Amino acid sequence: MASLVGRLSRAVFIRNAATLGRNTGSKSANATGPTLSRTAVSSTAGSIPPKPVKVPFGLTRMTILVVPFLYVGTLISKSFATLLEEHDIFVPDDDDDDD
């Protein structure tokens, strides 16, 4: 029983190593196994997929969304830094600017 489990695990390991290995090309003309190919340019049937949907005004929409939230984030951080300085939790030293 143990030898059967050992043989099966060895066979699975060899099959997975061959599939996941870097050199997946067939070694001989009669070799059978999965044929790995990229389907980014074509589908499994060989046809060219349609163009992806283009979002109109994508960069403009992203800018309109990002800029206000960055501004709000800077306002919050400035007010928090002022609060820390008022309560003497964090006070930057003026001596650090010596050049």
What is the radius of gyration computed over CA atoms, rounded to a whole number of angstroms?
Answer: 31 Å
Helix share, percent: 40-55%
Secondary-structure-based class equals mainly alpha
Tell me about the largest β-sheet: none
Can you count the helices?
2
Order of helices and strands: HH
Taken as a percent bin, the fraction of beta residues is: under 5%
Tell me the distance between the termini.
Answer: 78 Å
Query: Shape from CA axes?
Result: flat
Give a description of the structure.
- The structure is a single chain.
- This protein has helices at 2-20, 58-86.
- It has two helices and no strands.
- The protein is flat, with a radius of gyration of 31 Å.
Care to give the gist of this entry?
This protein is an all-alpha fold and 99 residues long.
